[in-house]
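Before the break, one more example. Copy the sequence into your notebook; we will annotate it together after we see the structure.
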Amino acid sequence: MMLSEQNKIDNYKTTLFTVFTCLWLVGIIAGEKAPALLSITMIGQLLSVLLLTHPKKLWNNFINNKAMAFFSLSFLFLLLSFFYSDNLKYLGERLQIKIPILLYALIWPSIGVLSKIQFKVIFLSLIGICVISAGGILTNYALHFEEINQLYLQSKIMPGPINHIRYSLLIVFAICVIYYYIKQQHIESKTEKNLLMAAAIFLILFLHIYSVRSGLLTLYAVIVISTINQAIATKNYKQVGVTIGALIVIIMISLAVSPTMRNKLINTKQDVNVYANQEDPNFNSLATRMVSYKTALEIAKENILWGCGQGDLKDKNDVLFKRDYPSITTPIIPHNQFIYYLAATGLVGLIIFTFTFTAPLWVNKFYQFEFMQVAYVILLLAFQFEAMIETQIGVACTLLIILFPYYLSQQRKTMV
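Here is what the structure looks like once it is written out:
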């Protein structure tokens, strides 16, 4: 049977989108070394939908999708800062970095139905990229074992392709993808299942060697959530206690056999003591992060309702760092996305952001689906330690972690 013209266009669209998405995943991992690749692949994703969807249909799909319409407001509300920010150049930079949030919300309802094979290619690409990059990191670690172990006592981390927090979150997300595929039986052979399980075990072991606090916390959180869901479904609540006990044992074993985890724990204690004793926080990552929270809250008090305006946050933050912590030559922005928005946009902005950013979770009760639950747990925990969406790679990681589980939840009746 001949395909209709519209079906051909839809096939071209989903095929191009799949290709650009796989390249996008490479671009995320290579982002800090090849930022142009990430930009090009994101533009390719957008154009593959924009150019192959009638404008009227694109708009109707968007406004009829309440989750994406609300989600777009998590970018649009920032435009209010234009009216009370003096540093419009910095505001423009912030908006430029975050504009993919608006654009992806616009195109996502018009992607069409990706086939099981296309979705599988995307997710297996993610898993493969994570496994290969993690293998490369561990190889470098083996070649520079003592030197890298020492870095963990200096508030540093083993060299990786991108920021360690974002990278560890991608690894956790890849593990969740593997779990989803095995649980939903999207596998075609025992060999494939065994390979996926081996990949998951390898990535879990890698996270314990990589020893990023936020990554490990997120991993344990999603494991507990999955166990709770399983316990509720089977009414076997002992599973939760067994899982928590097993995690405690894993942590103890990791501390015993992993030099990086031991050194990270020592460094964490040192960092906490530095902040508690009001010592010089310079070169202490956790202490410096706590300082960034303190300065942000001080800025927020100046205008608790509307904040200082996102355009002026960096300038005000730099002034406070120079005044109170002159030894820190390079001030950092508030390393908490919620505190960041509280300082920049006040309570009003923080409420708007929280409500709209979480729309894919609560619209249509998608919080009932485990993959959506763990996606937001990953991000909301990350937001406690990182201003995640203040960098290009952070925005890309955020969109990946939210939108693909959302798409699967939305298409659950037509896919699989």
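The two ends are 24 Å apart (CA to CA). The chain has a mean pLDDT of 91. Try to locate both features in your own notes.
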